[in-house]
Amino acid sequence: MTEIRPVSTDDDYKIACYFHDKLTELYSHWKIKFHLPTFELKQYTHILQNGWNIYYQFGKDLDGQYMEIYSTHRMTSDGHVKYYADGSKLILPSFTTACPLGKEEEFKLWNERVAKDVYDPVQGILRGI
């Protein structure tokens, strides 16, 4: 039986497998299932499972091919991370829900700044979708 390859080159297939394995590893405790990505640039996927909202997309920038994840769960803080195919990662700003007393204005400004970076009210939570 021929293996189904969701991408056009062997290198892209290896990268797609790496990102799939990374997603599976990150959310293995919650037994969340992910499909092997087709790795089309800017492919966007949303998973709602076991209390998690996980938005992820693929792309390419000056640092290489990446998978960007924005995750939310009502029992934890939001997370926003960009994983690169070379194994490096970049932690990006995400919404915060805890507002220290007396820091209300900073809290508001932070979340407004994050919203400009990540939120697209028409298409989804990640920019560029």
Helix-strand makeup class: alpha+beta
Task: Going across the biggest sheet, name each strand in turn.
Answer: 1-2-3-4-5
Distance between the termini: 35 Å
Share of helical residues: 10-25%
- Report the count of strand segments: 5
Number of helices: 2
Description:
The protein has 129 residues and is α+β, with helices and mostly antiparallel strands. The chain has two helices and five strands, in the order H-E-E-E-E-E-H. The chain has helices at 10-26, 104-118; strands at 44-49, 52-61, 64-73, 76-84, 89-91. The chain has a five-stranded antiparallel sheet, with no helix packed on it. Strand 2 (52-61) and strand 3 (64-73) form a beta hairpin. It is globular, with a radius of gyration of 16 Å. The N and C termini lie far apart (35 Å). The mean pLDDT is 81.
Could you give a quick summary of the protein structure above?
The protein is an alpha+beta fold. The chain has helices spanning 10-26, 104-118, and strands spanning 44-49, 52-61, 64-73, 76-84, 89-91.
Provide key terms for this protein:
single chain; 129 residues; alpha+beta; five-stranded antiparallel beta sheet; 2 helices
Question: Which SSEs are present, and which pair or pack?
Answer:
Elements: H1 10-26, E1 44-49, E2 52-61, E3 64-73, E4 76-84, E5 89-91, H2 104-118
